[in-house]
Specification:
single chain; alpha/beta; Alpha/beta knot; 2 domains; six-stranded parallel sheet; 6 strands
Length: 241
């Protein structure tokens, strides 16, 4: 995709208007319907998930519940998307991968905290909140680890609080994709019903719309180049008068 960060304000709006003419009105209306329910008030963080079908199912769940950003921590395991499970959901999300040479868990969580997120670790082994009792008075990042070993010590130590799903059986944990779905079904509804601003800003919405448009049309690079050339001609002509 073309990096459109150079476009601001009216120019970005014009580019959106230009590109939307290359998709059906019905499809663009769907974009507008979905974008108004997207949120970054809640975000998901996945630490070293190695089973691609589970990783991909989480993406489907995030898309269904309107979660725009998914942070992927790669320390030992590379995160792989299974297209048969994800069913294209990954292209509608912002996947932020943390895969540098340093401890990516610390780097990711530190950065989230700097951006105002409260880190909530999903684990049954601590005194925890439930989806119904967790305070939602600030931006919240839900942190999940592997099914086999759970979250690392670094992740648990950096968490601000913990959350779990109350269970009454012999088994103490669920499949990660099921867990994410249970958490988000309650937390996303609570966030949208609460007093805090959960919706994307107009600028964030426009950036995402441009990303979705580029992924929905053929040869977006050529079309954007054509748009730029027309804009240069128009601005040059305007200066003459």
């Amino acid at each position: 995709m073309v990096n459109v960060d150079e476009y601001t304000g009216p120019d970005k709006q014009k580019l959106i208007g230009y590109l939307q003419s290359f998709i059906t009105p019905q499809r663009y209306a769907k974009f507008l319907e979905v974008i108004k329910n997207r949120t970054r008030f809640l975000t998901i963080v996945l630490e070293d998930i190695y089973q691609s079908h589970n990783a991909s199912a989480v993406l489907r769940t995030c898309d269904c519940f309107g979660i725009q950003d998914v942070h992927i921590i790669e320390n030992r395991n590379k995160y792989e998307v299974n297209p048969d499970v994800a069913l294209g959901s990954s292209k509608w999300l912002n996947l932020i991968t943390h895969s540098g040479p340093e401890n990516n868990t610390v780097k990711c969580l530190t950065n989230l905290k700097k951006n105002g997120y409260r880190i909530i670790a999903a684990t049954p082994h601590h005194i925890s909140f439930t989806p119904e009792t967790l305070p939602l008075d600030q931006k919240t990042a839900l942190l999940f680890g592997t099914e086999l070993t759970g979250l690392t010590r670094e992740a648990l130590d950096m968490a601000d609080d913990y959350i779990k799903i109350p269970m009454v059986g012999f088994t103490e944990s669920l499949n990660i994709s099921v867990s994410v779905a249970i958490f988000l079904q309650t937390l996303a509804h609570r966030a949208r019903s609460g007093p805090n601003p959960w919706q994307l800003t107009e600028e964030e919405q426009n950036d995402i719309l441009l990303s979705w448009l580029q992924q929905s049309i053929n040869k977006p690079e050529m079309l954007i180049r054509n748009f730029n050339e027309k804009e240069i001609i128009r601005k040059t002509s305007d200066k003459k008068f």
